Amino acid sequence: MIVRARKVTAAALTSIFLAAAPAVGMATMLPGQLPDAAAQPDTSTGETSTFPDTPRTQAGNPFLTLSIDTVAPSTVTTTSDPFVTVRATVTNTGDRSVEDVGVRMQAAAAIDTTAGLRTSLTLDQDSFDRVGEFVTVADALEEGESRQFDMSMPLRSTTEASLGIDAPGVYPLLLNVNGTPEYGGTARLDDARFLLPVVGLPRNPGEQDPLAPDATPLPPNTRNPVAMTVLWPLADKPRLAAGSPGSVDERVRLIDDDLAGELAEGGRLDTLLKAVEFATKPALDPGGNLASSLCLGIDPDLLVTVSNMTRGYLVVDNPADPASTAREGTGSAAAAQWLARLETLASNTCVTALPFAQTDLGAVADIDDAALRSGAIAAPADIVDGILGITSTRGFTWSTTGGVDADTAEALRTAGTNTVLVADNSVSPPTSAPMSLLDPTTAPTSTLAATQYDAATAAALAGVGSTPSTPPLTPAEQRFDLDTDSRTARLQDALGAVNFHALVGTDRPGRTVTVAPPQYWTAGADEPSAILSSMSSLLRSGLATPRPLSALLAEPASGPPVTSIDAGTEFDAGTNELVRSQSARVETLMQSLVEDPQSPLTPRLYAAPLREDMLRALTTAGRASSADDDARNAARTRLAATRIGLDTIYGSVTVLAPGGVYTLASEQSPLLLVARNDLPIPVNVLLRVDAPPEMTISDVGVTQLPARGSRTITVPAEVDDTRNLSVDFSVTTLDGTRLGEVSTVSVRSNAYGQALAIITACAGALLLLLAGRRLWHRFRGQPDPADEGYERP
User: Fold this and answer.
1) How far apart are CA 219 and CA 80, in angstroms?
2) How many whole angstroms separate alpha carbon 650 and alpha carbon 732?
């Protein structure tokens, strides 16, 4: 990530010199004795430092840090005050006191390109050429001390220094702070920047001539409004604990209880939902313009989680262990209330389903697993519709990363997507067409259309909230360290971006814009309401007109075919292979599970959470922010827990080992084995036997084991030896994948083989001979010699 020039750790000699300066009690050096690179103060004449880097301490910290607290007005209109007031806080973050702390306000020219919404915030200080006077806000600041102050400056004036704003537009503003660190000279020590949207100009109070242009307010040009479509995401990081199959009576388990706070009053998801509820009220949106231009993008994984929370849930102590101890969750009531509100709102609002768990569609395409592809792209709409009782927009996919490569496009086509929403900076050649056909050369028999959202506006919106992020496709020149800005400054940047398309290019016909924040958006507090209020104002004032998502999707593709690039997947080949193999195990399990008409738990419901765990592990949520390491660790933990859970399930179906030696009554006596199924759903199994050559085992075919029960399996066997034989038995899925452990059975037969057959045959022959001899004598009336000595009484 590129850091703004003003924030880069200074390599100037002043840092080293100041760190090595004498301790307290030594004489302070005069400014003229500092190295030239250290003593470049800003002056009230408008001169700016020729060195963009601010001096730092030896530890790399700035001497002062400036933070924007409030901006009033946040958006300038014809009825606003004719000046801008900024409340800010300056803090001594260095290792010594700083004296003569002075601040002034500066402005740069209006932004005229969408890229300028980001690059203007990294401009060199000499680009902010409309400057005010330095105002001393603190005579001295000791280490760790802060000072809050207010600073105002006229928008325009002919009699005093002003921001020089003479027309509607979006303007970059800057607060610049100078100071004199102990043992050093006066230098620029920090600055803070933000965008100021000017929708209309109030009158210039200093203009005395009533006929002068500045004497009356200057409204915006509304003759050519921009057609606006707004996507409003409701999504969260995956929260369900991995490795647990579906159930109809067991409570779900979450990895933490953070979602309870987000759903509760004042939480992030409550705030995002409340902002839409409030802004679309008939009293505030009488014509329904905002409501018709807006479409909710809902993550089905969030809905699945919240819906399960309403019935009570547990929070695990160890997310890596599916069977770990757990405590009661606290958010059931909040989940029920939030879900009920969403159902009400969704019944009258456009809704589209996001990819499941905001999964990385590029990774899903690379893995090339049909079940995962369907779960990520096709199934979400059914889940959203089933839980909310609505009919969501079908055949439309909002890219989680901002682009699609050829493989991802083919995966989308295969899963039933007709149109994909991508960032405009992912498309080549650039086009202003609302709908374009993606290059069909990779799949000549099918088509996929692409529509675009403004990438610069999306980047500005991504900076809003508690955890700012930078979209993956953001160009290098538009990247900077978002953590150096306050939440207020980042919100101002977003407001400027939202207003930009309505204020710039009013002479261009057919103007359209699609506004799409990041799917996992950490905007909270008053931020969502401020953004929606700004959009609503544009629609009410005539600067914008609503363009429903349905109308956008109905647009015919125009212009030449385009291609879309995608950010490289965050997942390595090893991760993809692990997901592929675990998904195959889930599919294998699914094929062997049996639906019981008497049970509401079906094989699909039982296995669905296990497959969804793979998609949750591939989530993009949090990966574009400073929480990226946490997101990576969560993915690794989830995959490990899923593997443990599947191992446990596979081990729950097994052959019970009989004790001692199994003795056969004859050489063809059957073996009696007991197979046990501890799963809550019936399962079909095959018996696998590893027997020595002296033993022949007949195939018993498919055996169905009842849910949480056992069954005796009669195994026909033939033994040609009297020795003890070791035979290994196990059960497998229908495709031969082993379940449970191998049971070794020691078998002994009472058979005597060929000798026994000869003896038996001879005995039989002798018996026949003697019986025939007796009958012969009886028929001839002769006594049998064998009866001599035996007389009848």
Assistant:
1) 12
2) 9
d(CA 271, CA 285): 19
Residues 6+ apart with CB under 8 A from 316: 241, 253, 254, 255, 322, 324, 325, 326
Q: Would you place residue 14 in the very low, low, confident or very high pLDDT band (cuts 50, 70, 90)? A: very low
Question: Peptide bond preceding 682: is omega within 30 degrees of 0, i.e. cis?
Answer: no
Q: SS3 of 255, please?
A: coil
Strand ranges (E), 4-63: none
Give the integer Cα–Cα distance in Å for 462 and 455.
10
* Distance from chain centroid for Cα 604: 24
CA–CA distance, 543 with 535 (Å, rounded to integer): 10
pLDDT tens digits, one per residue of 728-774: 889 999 999 999 999 888 777 665 545 555 666 777 777 777 777 77
- CA nearest neighbour of 92 among 68, 70, 66: 66
Cβ distance 450 to 563 under 8 Å?
Answer: no
The SS3 of residue 179 is: strand
Residue 498 in 3-state DSSP? Answer: helix
Is the CB of residue 675 less than 8 Å from the CB of residue 702?
no
Contact (CB, 8 A) for 514 and 231: yes
In sequence order, what are the residues at sequence separation of 6 or more whose Cβ sits closer than 8 angstroms to the Cβ of residue 381?
353, 392, 393, 394
Nearest to 491 by CA among 453, 533, 462, 515: 462
| pLDDT at position 41 | 35
Give per-residue pLDDT as tens, 463-522. Answer: 999 999 999 999 999 999 898 899 999 999 999 999 999 999 888 888 999 999 999 999
Which tokens hold the place of 549?
A: 């998502």
Alpha-carbon distance 334 to 270, whole Å? 9
Q: Which helix (H) or strand (E) holds 612?
A: helix 603-617
Give me the residues paired with residue 546 across strands. 228
Give 113's strand partners: none
| pLDDT score, position 667 | 57
Please, what is the angle between helix 487-503 and helix 455-462, to 10°?
Answer: 160
Percent of the chain with pLDDT over 90: 68
Could you tell me whether strands 98-107 and 130-131 are parallel, antiparallel, or unpaired per DSSP bridges? Answer: antiparallel
Does 556 sit behind a cis peptide bond, omega within 30 degrees of 0 on the bond before it? no
Compute CA 147 distance to the chain's CA centroid, rounded to the nearest angstrom: 39
Per the structure block, which two tokens stand in for 556? 């015919």
Instruction: Report the C-alpha gap between 411 and 432 in whole angstroms.
Output: 26
| Phi (first) and psi of residue 772, to 5 degrees | -70, -40
Q: Would you call the peptide bond into 73 cis, given omega within 30 degrees of 0 as the criterion?
A: yes
Sheet containing strand 671-677, edge to edge, reads 653-656, 671-677, 709-715
Tokens 């537009």, residue located = 169
Asked if residue 645 has pLDDT above 70, the reply is: yes
- 569 or 172, higher pLDDT: 172
Question: Sign of torsion, CA 70 74 78 84?
Answer: positive
Q: Which residue has the tokens 């799409």?
A: 516
Q: Are 697 and 663 in contact (CB under 8 A)?
A: no
DSSP string, 438-475: B-GGG-TT---EEEEE-HHHHHHHHT-SSS-B--TT--
624 touches 518 (CB < 8 A): yes
Q: Rounded distance, CA 572 to CA 138, Å?
A: 53
| Cα–Cα distance for residue pair 302/342, rounded to 1 Å | 12
- β-strand pairing of 313-316 with 252-254: parallel
Q: Token digits for 773?
A: 């001899």
Give the C-alpha separation, 572 to 580, whole Å: 12
- Per the listing, tokens 């650039």 go with 430
> Considering only CA atoms, which of 565, 531, 357, 360 is closest in space to residue 457?
531
- Of 68, 65, 58, 55, the C-alpha closest to 8 is 55
The SS3 call for residue 636 is: helix
Which of 552, 155, 587, 527 has its CA nearest to residue 367? 587
Residue 231 and residue 296: Cα distance in Å, rounded? 6
